[in-house]
Amino acid sequence: MKAEFVKSAARPDHFTGEDLPEVAFVGRSNSGKSTLINALTGQKRLAKASNSPGRTQLIQFFLINGSLSFADLPGYGYAKVPESIRSSWRPMIETYLRVRANLCLVVLVADIRRDITNDELLLIDWLTQYERAVLVVLSKTDKLSANEQALRMKKIRKALSFLPPERICPYSAKTGKGREQIWQSIGGIVQDFTKPAEE
User: What are phi and psi of 63, to 5 degrees?
Assistant: First the structure.
């Protein structure tokens, strides 16, 4: 797989072109979002994963195999990020999610060990209103036993019962479990998005 960083941007007039289908990645700063992008592309240093959550403060664009675009959005909800910076992210992120014509899927990355927050529920609802497809990836499954995973999945699926079951995917960056399922979901949604409309 060929994957390369293209540019960082904060305003629509600085975004990349809209000629390729695009997948956006959102989530709390410590959810494992950048790590997931690196694992999906097979490149350990493509997206900047850091031990200091909140490092990514712009939208990062990546080109995948010359035919797909990834967008890594700033993480949210981390207390150590100054309020002045956090407040500037919201309009940037909302503008991107609202106006981006080639955005075909939003991947929400959430730590399986934590309950889905009200902010995440509101985000999913907001995306649904704008008819954006959503895939919830539950990261860090390797940190739980099989029984603990099953209990967490049951609770989270209940909280997200309005989503189709296939739109909720457990994942481990350490073992790679779930990677194929995520790519299958991305591929199916991209294919539907780029399918010519019937006359």
Answer: -105, 125
pLDDT tens digits, one per residue of 156-195:
999 999 999 999 999 999 999 999 999 999 999 999 988 7
User: Checking DSSP bridges between strand 68-72 and strand 59-64, what pairing results, if any?
Assistant: antiparallel
Structure tokens belonging to residue 153: 């999945």
Report whether 107 contacts 135 (CB < 8 A).
Answer: yes
Q: Which CATH architecture has domain 3-194?
A: 3-Layer(aba) Sandwich (3.40)
SS3 79: coil
Tell me the pTM.
0.90
Beta sheet of 59-64, edge-to-edge order = 3-9, 59-64, 68-72, 22-27, 103-111, 134-139, 168-170
Measured distance CA(15)–CA(8) in Å, rounded = 8
